[in-house]
Amino acid sequence: MAKPLFELKDVYFSYMGKFPALCGVNLTIEEGAKVCVIGANGTGKSTILNMLDGLIFAGSGSMKAFDRNITSGVMSEPGFSRVFRKSVGFVFQNPDAQLFCPSVKEDIMFGPLQLGVQLDKIKKGVDIIANRLKINNLLNRQPHQLSIGEKKKVSIACVMAVEPDVFLLDEPTAGLDPATTRDIIDILLEENMAGKTIVTATHDMHIVGEISDIAHVLGRNKKIIRSAVPDEILLDCEFLKDNNLVHVHRHMHDGRIHAHPHLHTEHH
Ligand SMILES: Nc1ncnc2c1ncn2[C@@H]1O[C@H](COP(=O)(O)OP(=O)(O)O)[C@@H](O)[C@H]1O
Ligand SMILES: [Mg+2]
Fold first, then answer.
1. Which of 40, 50, 179, 250 is the most buried (most CB within 10 A)?
2. What's the pTM?
3. Which pLDDT score, from 0 to 100, does residue 252 have?
4. pLDDT of 127-151, one tens digit each?
């Protein structure tokens, strides 16, 4: 069995001590794994990713990462925090939270510059990444002028530039067209084939089968209620309906309006 990279044990977390976001989460993520965290809005997906990225800490219970118990104290040890930041890359749901430089190129260079990588190595890396993500034409553009899909690709490029071992992705394909979604999934699958751990939070059921070997479902109770191979979950219509992961659509049948659940896995 692969080595556990992250281990959450009975984790509780509340924002400002009064808004519960995780209520007894147990989750193990192994090195090189490809996993999804799925669940309806507000079930705690982003909170889990924030915790995996060492931005917030378990209120009770514990999170282990890289064989250390992660606390604010451990994350402020300069040595550990540097290794952690180099190892774990987080693509935020909102790319505007990630892009702040005057040009796309500078944004992509920012992470490796902070980590003290040599400039010529960084420049070569930018070209390689821009080719892979097909964003060469955007390098001299201002990030805030880009479309949402372009911004998403640039955010992923920024994280790839740091060459992390673990990619945390919060709704990476939300609002993207099918071709851009395809490009992003292909890049993530390539990274996984190269040994990287990929953790994706999503409620886009279309991508779950490809982007994960195991899917963890968060329920309304803000804990993981099921962990299984994606097909098992995607084929369980009742379970998906109970957990708000399917639409109920209205259609005309024989001149009458008729409502029935409609899987996100079926393309519209
Ligand atoms: N900054 C915040 N302050 C207060 N409550 C928050 C904050 N962020 C999230 N929450 C609450 O925590 C719960 C989990 O949120 P979140 O992790 O964002 O869910 P998801 O990503 O699955 O939509 C929700 O009930 C949400 O209202
Ligand atoms: Mg979220």
1. 50
2. 0.92
3. 67
4. 999 999 999 999 999 999 999 889 9
CATH number of the domain encompassing residue 175: 3.40.50.300
Nearest listed ligand to the Cα of residue 17? 1
Stretch (H or E) spanning 84: helix 78-87
Question: Based on the structure, what is the number of domains in the chain?
Answer: 1
Q: Please give the residue range of the domain that contains residue 99.
A: 4-263
The answer to whether residue 240 sits within a structural domain is yes
Q: Token pair of 40, please?
A: 């309806």
CB-based contacts of 262: which residues, under 8 Å, 6+ apart?
246, 247, 248, 249
Yes or no: say if 89 and 166 are a contact pair by the CB < 8 Å rule.
yes
Please identify every stretch of the chain with a pLDDT value under 50, giving residue numbers as ranges.
264-268
Question: If you average pLDDT over every residue of the chain, what do you get?
Answer: 92
Q: What is the pLDDT of residue 50?
A: 98
On whether residue 10 sits in a domain, the answer given is yes
- Asked whether residue 268 is assigned to any structural domain, the reply reads no
Pick the atom of ligand 1 nearest to 49's CA. Answer: 17
Q: Which of 36, 46, 244 has most ligand 1 atoms within 8 Å of its beta carbon, as the pocket-test mutant?
A: 46
Q: Which ligand is nearest to the CA of 94?
A: 2
User: Ligand 2 centre and the CA of 46: distance in Å?
Assistant: 4
- Closest by CA to 143, choosing from 159, 135, 154, is 154
